[in-house]
Structures are given as C-alpha cells and as structure tokens.
Amino acid sequence: MKVSEVMTRDVQTVSPDQPVREAASFMLSADAGSIPVTEGERLIGMITDRDIAVRGVAKGHGPDTPVRDLMTDDLVVVRSDDNVEDVATKMSEAQVRRLPVIDEDNRLCGIVSLGDLSRQTDTECATQALEGVTQKGGQHQQ
C-alpha cells in the first residue's frame, strides 16, 4: 500500500514569517503537535509544540517570534509513492509520530501520522512505527 492511500491531504501550514502564536493557535484548535512550514508549496520546515514551549521559552522567545526562528529545518520526509512499510520504518528510526509527504516535484501534498497507519494498514506496520517512536533517546525534532 502506498502512503498516498492513507495520508491526510488537507494540511494546514504556516509561513516562516508568521508569529509562533499563530502556529500554536492552529495546533490547539486542531489538537496537533506540529505544523509544516512552507514557502509557497515548498516545504521548508516543521514547527512543533515542543519547539515553541521548550526551546522557545528556554531561550526567552515571545509569542511574536517568527516561526523561522524556532522551526526545525532538518526534515525527515516521505514521498507520496513510498510504501507504508517504509514509512513505518522511517517513523520508527526518526522517533516521530507524523511525517510530511512530498510529491515528485518536492511539493507538500499531505501528512501521514501514526494514527493513519494504525487505522489504514495492518497492525504489524503500525506496531513497528510505534515501537520506534516510544523508545527512549534520540532527537525529537518533528
């Protein structure tokens, strides 16, 4: 099964110039822990609630700080034609619960979450991703 068959297509994004307050507001209303950062259709980063609450606050950044100052730009992405098994492996290795999905032209076309995998695929695939995500250690960047 391809990731394009299970991903969420309607993805809210923020621009790098928006204040982190707006990114946090979206996360609150969508009950999401991260949001892609785009310039046009090009994915340039991700910002997480952890980026804002931990890194931002620890460094003294306020709610009007531009997203670009706190976003993660070292991204792990998947392609829309990747197999869900490969996606589960990437999630596990990167210890993340969601990954941005890009198309053949490197444009953001969706996001795939651990929940998407658990609802739409066999349990072995979701279990593999969950085991890696819940292991201690690693960099939790997106």
Automatic annotation (TrEMBL):
It comes from Sphingomonas limnosediminicola. SMART domains: CBS (SM00116). It holds the Pfam family CBS. Gene3D superfamilies: CBS-domain. CDD domains: CBS_pair_HRP1_like. Residues 7-65, 71-127 form the CBS domain. InterPro entries: CBS_dom, CBS_dom_sf, Diverse_CBS-Domain. This is CBS domain-containing protein. The keyword Secreted does not apply.
